[in-house]
């Protein structure tokens, strides 16, 4: 693995070395390293790109890392990964994609992820997207995520795209059974002429299911963001969506939450705010000796933390 | 005017007698009464149904009532009304439509209203929709409202649909110039198998323009409500939308606010909540001697006030 690939791995999976536990590292369309454990098996799919990750019931305090890196300009792929998480598991899954494109052709990775989460299982899922490279070719990521949660399960998803992705359409869908809970935390920053679209659809199907979708984003330069969150309350349930965006320069931010109450005991709430950095905050930091640029950066970093 | 027509007039325009000021009363497609004043002129359109209402610049503390009533089952009409409100006016405009349908055929009134609001003018606009009659024929209202606000103008719109309208699609659009302010207050109740759709699009085009869209609704029985509010911030501006709904029985409520920030100094905020009547509120009122039904009604009425 070369220096660029190592850098990408660090950014998307916080990996400085080979991780503990199960992992599958994919670089430029090829599996370059894989490890399985007694509880977590990883098998390549037949007939199409991607892997099946099977986690035995009752597996606790284990992790799976499945980072993807692309460093060849013009490389495009669609990858199908399915996660089968047994009942009563408590695991961390880290997936991410880093693209380095120093050429003139577009590079693209579309990861189609499905999660089948067993009863009372607990999953923390982290997905980071990152791009680098000075080429004219675009860095494109169109992930699709589907989550099917059985009774009493808990899923926390951290979706992060901090830098360098030219175009992304992120589509996420979840269906929750009785007593299941889903927490989605999205953090997004776009700059230059980047475009980012996030579409979430959460169906609160089972009684006492619960969802919390929180998006924080910063749009700089000429970038364009669109956020859609559709929360469907089909039973006695609680749904909450919150979307806060900082808009800067010539950027555009479109926020379209949908609350769809189909049951008289569905309790759905949404809040959204789009605005610029508060002037007082900037001035305060500048009196402490920061330049305007530094003060802005400090506020943006704090907001996205 | 018969008893039914008088009742409709009362409901939609709070009129117990002939109003003071300018008015135009339309019943079953015919103008039945009209009054103009020195400052407010009403002229029938040529070539199509409807009227032009011209209010002289500087007109203060005057009102225009233009209620429409339909009591003939199966009657359908599209009416075009244009309001030209001069600079520095301060006026109240009351428009409303009441349909009594005791027959088997659908009755429908579609009012297409345009408001051209002059500089620094102040307008309070009230629009009430109401339906009665035990016939199988539906009572349908599809109003379209367009508001063009010049510099410094203030428009307050009260859109009320309390009872008896089987199907409505309300489409409202506003474009605000510099320093203009728009306040929309919607109150809606649906019952039975009624369907109601409200679509608002407010473009904050001028600097320091300001919009506040507040919707409160109650959905009972098998009724179906959809609320869309699109606030476009195209300049330094403030936009706020709030949508609260009480859902009961087998009803469905869909809320789709859109915040579209196209300028870094646009400050846009949205809040929405859909839920049922709080149990504690019901119990409190019931301990005071009300039946559950009465307690519910009391809470709903308070919420829609």
TrEMBL record, chains A, B:
Superkingdom as given in the UniProt entry: Bacteria
State the Pfam families in the record: SUFBD_core
Limits of the SUF system FeS cluster assembly SufBD core domain: 93-303
| Gene Ontology process terms (BP) | iron-sulfur cluster assembly
Q: In which family does this protein belong, per the annotation?
A: Belongs to the iron-sulfur cluster assembly SufBD family.
Name it: Fe-S cluster assembly protein SufD
